[in-house]
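> forwarded from #structure-qc
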């Protein structure tokens, strides 16, 4: 079973900042830059998902982009912790849903 995890643009920017990925002038890549990239068809386009007016990035596809663009996957201890917390929350939600259906 595959666990799909999604990140917000802020989480992507923070993820890259945590491992030292920078843009022009050695400044961290911002949420605004990610929005410009989406508009121009640049950046991690394959990872972008738009749903109900919100933009999210599929983590698996984002990791593929990072490997190709930066030569590394940008899983810092902090971003891994966030992903781990999301995964735990997802499992709790699925478990609660299953328990309600069984009752």
């Amino acid at each position: 079973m595959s666990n799909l995890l999604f990140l917000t643009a802020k989480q992507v920017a923070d993820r890259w900042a945590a491992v030292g990925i920078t843009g022009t002038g050695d400044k961290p890549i911002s949420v605004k830059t990610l929005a410009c990239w989406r508009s121009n068809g640049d950046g991690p386009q394959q990872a972008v998902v738009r749903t109900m007016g919100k933009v999210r990035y599929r983590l698996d596809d984002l990791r593929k982009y990072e490997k190709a663009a930066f030569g590394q996957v940008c899983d810092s201890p902090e971003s891994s912790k966030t992903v781990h917390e999301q995964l735990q929350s997802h499992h709790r939600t699925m478990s609660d849903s299953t328990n309600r259906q069984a009752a």
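QC bot note: The mean pLDDT is 82. The CA atoms of residues 56 and 66 lie 16 Å apart.
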